[in-house]
Design goal:
GMP Synthetase, Chain A, domain 3; four-stranded antiparallel β-sheet; 471 residues; ligase (chains A, B); homodimer; 20 strands
Chain lengths: 471, 471
C-alpha cells in the first residue's frame, strides 16, 4: 500500500491576509492607528497576546523543560504583570536545545513527522564561530516580520517607487532577505539587492547608485562611511550630490552626525535580530527607536541580576514576542545593551523608545575593574579628525595575568603626525573611559581583512586573545 | 496645498491568487492537468494568451518602434500562426532601449510618473561586463515565475519538508531568489540559502549538508563536481553517503552520468533565464526538458537566418512569453542553442521538450571555418579519466590574423603523464570537433580565480583575446 501523496501547501492560502492586517496594520494605517494607541489600550492588547504566547510555549518541549526546572506552573502566569516570575533564558540554552535534538532543537514547536506540511522558511544566526543557529518561520511568523519591516521602512521615509539599495549579506542570515521582503511587499518601493562588497564590489555599488538613482541605502554604518569616503576622497564625487534620501542602518554608537554630514541625508536607526526581525525603529523625529509594542514586550534588565532597571538606565534587553508560532521567545536575554528613553516623542507615537544599542554584554571587556565596550571606543576613534573611523580592539593577557587592550586605528597620516594622533587618542580613551589603552596606527584599508568590513554582514571590532577561562 | 499621501500597495492584495492558480496551476494540479492537455487544446490556450501579449506589446514604446520600423501593423497578427511575421529582437535591442531611456529603458511598459504604485521587484542580467541589465517584475509577472519554479521543482522530486540547499549567487541576478521563492511558496520544502562559495565556503556548505540533512542541491554542475571531489578525495567521505535525493542544475552539455555516479543521485536539468525564470525542466523521466507551454512559445531557429528549423535540429531559441505584463518578450532571440526532442515522453506529458542547452551562439568561436563551443570542449575534457572536469578556453590571434585556441585543463598528474594526457586530449578534440586545439595542463584549483568556479554564479569558460572587430 502506498501512502497518499502529500498535499503541497501554497503560501498565500495558508494565511488570512486581511485578518492579519487588522491585527498588525501596515504603513500609514499603523502610524495613524496602533502607533498612537493610548497606553491602557495597548497594555490590554499586549496582555491578550502575551497569554496566548505563554499557552503556546507550554506546548513546546524547550519551555516545558526550562520552566518546570524553575518550578513554574501554568497557574503562575495569569497576566502580563506576572512576567517577572518567568525565568529568562539565553543563547546558551538555545545552543543546548540544538545539541539535544539536532538539527532543529526542541524550541521550534514543529514535528515534521506529525504536523501537516506548511510553507516554511529558514534563516540563521550569523555563525561567526561554528555552525550558525537555524530558525524556522511559519507563514504567520514570517508575514508579521515582513509587516514590521515594511512599517519601519515607511516610518523611515521609504515611499512607492523609491529604489532602496540593500548592501547587507545575503545568505543564511536574515538581514538582507527580510529587508527585501519588507520593501517589496509592504512599501511599494523597489529593493535593489546588491549584497555586500564581496558580491557587488564597492565601485560597482556606486555605479548602480548613480545610474539607477537609488533613493535610500541600507547598510552597516562602517560600510556607508567607507563608500562615502571613497566617493569623496578618491573619486572626487560629493556623496551629497547623489540625492540619497535616507541611510537606514543599525547605528549602535556610531557617529550619526558624521555620517549625516558626509551623505547629506538623515540616518535612521533600527533594532533587529535574527530571531524576530525588526523590533524597534526610528521615526522621522529620530528621538529614539519606537518599539513595536503590539508585537513585543521588551524589558531592560541588570546584566548580572536580570532584574528590571528604571527608564533611562542601561541594561540588557529581555525580549518577549507577542506573535510567534514557531519558537516564541519569552524573556529571551538578547545580550544587547540599551535603555528606555524617558518622556514622549514629538511624533505623537505612544510606544516606548530604545535609546540605541550600546553594545553587546558578551562583547564587554572588564579591564582592571572597568567595563569597556569596543563600540564606545569606536565612537571616540570616529571623533578624531585624522581617522577614517576604522578600528579594531585586541585584548591580551600578560604573564602576570594582567589584561591589556590595544586599539588599532587606520589613518593616512605619516611619521611624527601618526605618533601624535596615537598619543591624542590614548589620552582621550583614558579621559572618557577611565582606563589606559595602547594605540597603534596603521594605514587605511589595513584592518579590512580582519574586521571583514567589505565582505561580512557584521563588522568585527574585538579580538580576544585571552584564555577562555580567564576572561 | 499638499498632494494626497500616496497609497502604499500591499503585495497580497494586488493579485487574485485563486484565479491565478486556475490559469497557472501549481505542483500536482499542473502535472495531472495542464501538463497532459491534448495538443489542440493547448494550442488554443496559447493562442488566446499570445494575442493578449501582442495587444499589450503594442502599448509599449519599444515594440511600437521596433515593429513599426519593420512595417508590422496590428492587423498583421491575428493568430499564433502569424508569429513568423514578427521581427525577432536581441539583447542588443534591449541594451539600445536602456541607453535611450535610462535607467529602465522603454521596454518595461511602466511609467512611475503616471501609473499608480504597485509592489515591484527587480533583478538583472549577470552583468559580466558593464552594468547589468535591470528587469522589473509586476506582482503577476513575478508570481507566475514563482509558480513555474515551484512546478519544476515538484516535477524534479522536491516534496514538503525537504531541505533544498541553494548554492547560487544571491544578489542582483535572478537565480537564487527565484529558487527561494519557488521552493518556499509552492513546494512545501525549505530553502537553505547558502549562496556561492564566496558567501559560504565549500567546507561550511558540506558541514551544513551533513548536519541539517539537506535532501536536494541546487548549483551549477561544475560546483557540484568540485564539492563531490573534495568530499571524496580530500575528506574521504563518499558523497553518496549523504543521501542527497536530487541534483538540480542547468546542465548544458556537462557529463550527467559522471555527476550522478559521484553523488548517487539523479541530475535534473533546467532551462531558466533572467528575463522570465524557469522556461523548461526535466520531469522524473529525464528525457528532455518539458517546456511550460502554457506560459511560453519557444521556437528553434537557424542562428543566421532566424528561420525555424525542424524538430531534432539545432538552433537558437526564440522566446515568446504568454503571461508578462512588464516587458513581455515576443520573439526574443535568447542566443541559447538547443533542439526539440522528437516523439513523446513516457511521463505522459504533452508539452514539447528541449534536448539540452548546447551553448550560446555568442560564445561560439569560428576557428578556420569550424564552429567550436567551449561547452562541447568541456564535455570532452570531463570524459578523460585524469581530469577533474575543470577547463578554460583561451582564443588568440597571431600576427598573420590566424585564430588559435588553447585549452587549459586541470589535473593532479605530474611529469610525463601530464604530457601524455595533453596529447590524448588534443587528439580527442581533433577527432570530435574537426579542428586542432593546443592543450596545456595545470594543477587542480589553478583555474579557479579565472573561471570564478567557487565565487561566481556563472563559471567562465572562454577568454577571447582577439580584437573585438576581428572575431
Amino acid at each position: 500500500m502506498n501512502a497518499p501523496a502529500p498535499t503541497v501547501p501554497r503560501y498565500y492560502e495558508s494565511l488570512d491576509f486581511p485578518e492579519l492586517w487588522k491585527e498588525f496594520p501596515t504603513a500609514s494605517e499603523y502610524q495613524d492607528g496602533v502607533a498612537r494607541m493610548p497606553a491602557a489600550e495597548l497594555r490590554a492588547l499586549q496582555e491578550r497576546r502575551f497569554l496566548a504566547q505563554v499557552q503556546r510555549a507550554w506546548q513546546i518541549p524547550f519551555y516545558q523543560r526550562h520552566w518546570s526546572q524553575a518550578g513554574l506552573k501554568p497557574q503562575h502566569i495569569q497576566s502580563l504583570s506576572d512576567l517577572a516570575a518567568i525565568p529568562p533564558f539565553s543563547v546558551h540554552d538555545l545552543r543546548d536545545a540544538l545539541a539535544r535534538n539536532p538539527p532543529w532543537g526542541d524550541f521550534m514547536g514543529i514535528d515534521p513527522d506529525r504536523d501537516p506540511p506548511m510553507p516554511l522558511v529558514m534563516q540563521t544566526s550569523g555563525g561567526t564561530t561554528g555552525l550558525p543557529r537555524p530558525m524556522l518561520y511559519s507563514p504567520r511568523d514570517r508575514e508579521v516580520m515582513n509587516i514590521l519591516t515594511g512599517r519601519r521602512l515607511h516610518m523611515q521615509g521609504v515611499r512607492p517607487y523609491d529604489l532602496v539599495q540593500v548592501m547587507l549579506s545575503l545568505g543564511l542570515s536574515n538581514g538582507g532577505f527580510l529587508a527585501r521582503e519588507g520593501i517589496w511587499k509592504y512599501t511599494g518601493a523597489v529593493p535593489v539587492m546588491t549584497g555586500t562588497g564581496a558580491v557587488t564590489p564597492t565601485r560597482r555599488q556606486i555605479e548602480i547608485m548613480q545610474t539607477w538613482k537609488t533613493t535610500q541605502l541600507v547598510a552597516f554604518p562602517a560600510y556607508l562611511r567607507h563608500i562615502g569616503l571613497l566617493l569623496r576622497d578618491e573619486l572626487h564625487i560629493d556623496p551629497r550630490s547623489l540625492g540619497i534620501k535616507g541611510l537606514i542602518v543599525h547605528l549602535g554608537v556610531d557617529d550619526r552626525e558624521e555620517l549625516e554630514a558626509l551623505w547629506g541625508a538623515p540616518v535612521y536607526d533600527t533594532y533587529g535580530t535574527n530571531e524576530c526581525g525588526s523590533l524597534a525603529a526610528d521615526c522621522s523625529e529620530r528621538t529614539g527607536m519606537h518599539i513595536f509594542e503590539d508585537a513585543f514586550v521588551l524589558e531592560i534588565a541588570d546584566p548580572d541580576t536580570l532584574r528590571p532597571v528604571a527608564d533611562g538606565e542601561r541594561g540588557v534587553i529581555l525580549q518577549t514576542t507577542l506573535f510567534k508560532h514557531f519558537a516564541p521567545l519569552i524573556r529571551f536575554n538578547s545580550n544587547d545593551i540599551s535603555s528606555i528613553v524617558p518622556g514622549h516623542c514629538p511624533c505623537g507615537g505612544t510606544h516606548r523608545r530604545l535609546s540605541c544599542i550600546f553594545g553587546r554584554a558578551d562583547n564587554m571587556v572588564k579591564l582592571r575593574g572597568t567595563n569597556v565596550f569596543p563600540e564606545a571606543i569606536g565612537a571616540l576613534v570616529a571623533e578624531h579628525p585624522s581617522s577614517n573611523g576604522e578600528y579594531l580592539c585586541i585584548v591580551d593577557q600578560d604573564a602576570t595575568g594582567r589584561d591589556h587592550m590595544t586599539v588599532l586605528v587606520e589613518t593616512d597620516l605619516g611619521g611624527r603626525e601618526r605618533e601624535t594622533m596615537a598619543a591624542q587618542l590614548a589620552d582621550r580613551f583614558k579621559e572618557a573611559l577611565g582606563v589606559k589603552l595602547a594605540v597603534t596606527t596603521v594605514a587605511p584599508g589595513e584592518l579590512d581583512a580582519r574586521t571583514g568590513l567589505s565582505s561580512a554582514s557584521k563588522v568585527r571590532r574585538l579580538i580576544d586573545n585571552r584564555p577562555k577561562d580567564k576572561r
